[in-house]
Design a protein that fits this description.
signal, Pentapeptide MXKDX repeat protein, mainly alpha
């Protein structure tokens, strides 16, 4: 009987210990959150950058020639280092 109670309390203790861990929050609307993240990054990186409707920099403009797709400066170019 003592072994049964010990085993049950061990199982119950482990079950409660794992129940306290939280999973990272995932959004069901990931498309909207990525757009807002890109908008925030592009505003902080280049406020005068011309953007396409999908949020990527428009490469036709001189200011955007050396930007990555997310709007941050491309570190391969000397003036962005």
């Amino acid at each position: 009987m003592k072994k049964l109670l010990t085993a049950m309390s061990l199982v119950l203790g482990l079950g409660l210990a794992t129940a306290q861990q939280t999973m990272p929050a995932t959004s069901t609307n990931t498309k909207q959150t990525t757009k807002t993240v890109k908008a925030v990054e592009s505003k902080t990186a280049q406020p005068a950058a011309k953007m396409k409707k999908d949020g990527t920099p428009d490469k036709r403009y001189k200011d955007n020639k050396k930007l990555k797709k997310d709007g941050t400066p491309d570190k391969r170019y000397k003036e962005n280092k």
